Amino acid sequence: MKILILGNSSIFNRKIFPALIKFKNIDIELATRGKNIKNLEISKIYKNYSEALEKSKAKIVYISLINSKHYYWGLKALNKNKHIIIDKPITLSFKNSLNLLNKAKEKQLLIAESTVFHFHKQFDQILSLINLKKKISIKTFFHIPRLNKNNYRNSIDLGGGCFNDMSTYAAYLINIFFNKEIDFKIKKKHYKKENYSYGFNILVQSKKILLRSSFKFNSKYKNIIIIEDNKYEYISEYVFSPPIDKSLVLKQINKISKKEKLIYYSKENVFYKFFKIIFKKVELSNFNKINNKLMVTEKLRNELS
User: Residues 256-285: what's their mean pLDDT?
Assistant: First the structure.
C-alpha cells in the first residue's frame, strides 16, 4: 500500500516517518517544497502538492502542513478519491470540518485526525483501574514553554494559537471519560491577547464525573493527568505526548495508607499503533466508525470554542 505525505514537517520527521518505516509493505511518497531530500526509505519525492495528488497512486494521503492549509488540501485529496489523515486540528472551523466529513461520506473514503495519545497502554490501564459509575475527579494539565518566534503556531493567520493546537486533546478527554454519560455540562474559559489564543480551561461535569483541564502556551512545561476516586489517586505524566523512546510510569497512591504503587509501561510507538489500525480499516473498507468518531470530536471542539 502506498501513502503520500504532503509536507516535510517536523512531526513527520520526528514521529510519523519512524512509525511508517516499521511497516514492510508500506511504500512512502513525499511531496515537499523544501530542499532536496535524500532518504532511501522514501520511494518518490514530488516538488508540487497538486502534481503529487494528480500523479501518485497512493490510496492514503497524510496532510502534515500548517493548520491554515488543512482544509484546502484535505478537500483536494478527497476529490482525487484519496483516503486522508490530517494533523490536528482537522480544520480551523466546524463548518469546514463538516464539509470534509460530508465529502468523505459521499466518496466513501476514510478521514482521520492524527491524534494518538489515547492509544498508549497507560489509558487502557487507567480505565481498567477506575470505575466510571462511581464518583471520580480528573485533572489534566498540558502547558508548554514559549515557542520559537518563527513557529507557525504563533501566527493567527496560519491557524496558530493554543485552542487550535490543543482543543482536540480536550475533546478526546470528554469523549473518553463521558462517552457513556447521558447528561453532562461543559464550561470553558479562554485566554486571548489581540484575538490570539494563548490558553483555555474546561470544566466538564456529570452526576459522577468531574473533569478539569488546563491548556497553555508560554508556560512552564506540564503534561500530566491526576485522577481521584474514593480510595486512590492516580498520576501519570507525558499523557498528551507519550514519547516513543521512554518508558512511562503510572503512580497509584492509597489515600488512606499513603502507600504508593508504581505501574511501569515499556516504550511504545503510539503512531505505529494508530497507522496499524488505519491501514487495516482501509484494507477492509471498514472505516465508518473512525469517521463517526471524528464527527463527535469536531462537535465537541465546536462546543468548546
Answer: 94
Q: Write out pLDDT tens, residues 112-160.
A: 999 999 999 988 888 899 988 889 999 999 999 999 999 999 999 999 9
Q: Which helix (H) or strand (E) covers residue 227, if one does?
A: strand 222-228
- Which phi-psi region, left, alpha or beta, contains residue 81 (left: φ > 0; alpha: ψ -120 to 50)? left
Query: Residue 38's pLDDT band (boundaries 50, 70, 90)?
Result: low
Domain range 2-116+271-304, CATH class: alpha beta
- pLDDT above 70 for 36: no
Check: CATH 1.10.10.60 for 121-267? no
C-alpha cell at 139: 485533572
Cell representation of residue 95: 463548518
Spans of all domains in the chain: 2-116+271-304, 121-267
